[in-house]
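Just wondering, can you check both lines?
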Amino acid sequence: DASASFEVFNSPLSEYATLGFEYGYSVGAPEALVLWEAQYGDFVNGAQIVADQFIVSGLSKWSQTSRLTLLLPHGYEGNGPEHSSARLERFLQLAAQENIRIVTPSTAAQYFHLLRRQALDPSARPLVVMTPKGLLRLKESSARLAQLAEGRFQPVIDDPAPHDRVRRLILTSGKLYYDIVGHEVREQHPTVAVARIEQLYPFPVDPATALVSSYPSLQEVVWAQEEPQNMGAWRAIRHRLEESIAGRVPLRYVGRPWRASPSEGYPTAHVREQDRIVRDVFA
C-alpha cells in the first residue's frame, strides 16, 4: 500500500561508449586535458574499436588528434589473467609515425611531470599510461614536494650506483623494477645495474644509447619484463634496444615464456614465477 513511486534504472557498463565520448570531448575541447581511467587495464578491450579507428589513426586519416589520456592499470599483481594486463603489446603494435605516446611511469614524480607535459606540450597526441596498482602504496615510488615542484619527466632513469664496475645492465619498466631491486639476491650482485625505460613510444633512442655507453666495462644487457615473450614491450622495442647497444655486447631476454594467456591467475603460481624471473635476471 505504499504511495511513493519506486524506479529502477540499469545503465550499461560500456567502455566502448565511454571512451568514445571521452575522445569526442577531447577533440571538441582541445584546451582541456581529458583523462579516462579504467578500473583494470583490460577494460579497454571492450573499447578497442575506438582505439583502432580514432585514437591511433585519426591523425593519419583526418589530421585530427587530441590530448586524450588513457590510464590503464597494468602490472602482474597475482590477479586474474585479464586484470593483470592492459595489453601493452597491442598499443605498441598500433604506434607509428609518432601518433601516440606510451609510457610506464615508475614514480609519483614521473607521473606528475608526465601529465603536466601532456597538458602543455604544443604537439597534441593521445597518451597511453600503464599504471601498476602495486605502486599506489609503495613507499619507494612516492615523491617529495621538491620533486614535484622541480624537474621534468625522464624517459630513461639510470641506476644511481657507480658505473665503472658494472658488468651487466638490466633494462626494465614498470613495477618489475621494484621487484628486482628489492629482491633478496640483489645485494649479492654488485656488478649488476638496473635502469628503467619509462617511455616506450616514441622510444628514447638517444637517451638509451647514452645510458648504455656510460658503462665502460659492460659485458651484457638484459631486457626484463613480467609479460610473456609474445606480449609486453619486448617484440616491439627489441630492435631499438639493439640499436642503442650498437653491437657492443649481447642482449638477453628474461620474462615469462610464450603464452596464450597473459598471466597465471593463481596467486601461488604467480609468486613462484615472479621470483623465477628476478632470479634469472641475476643468474
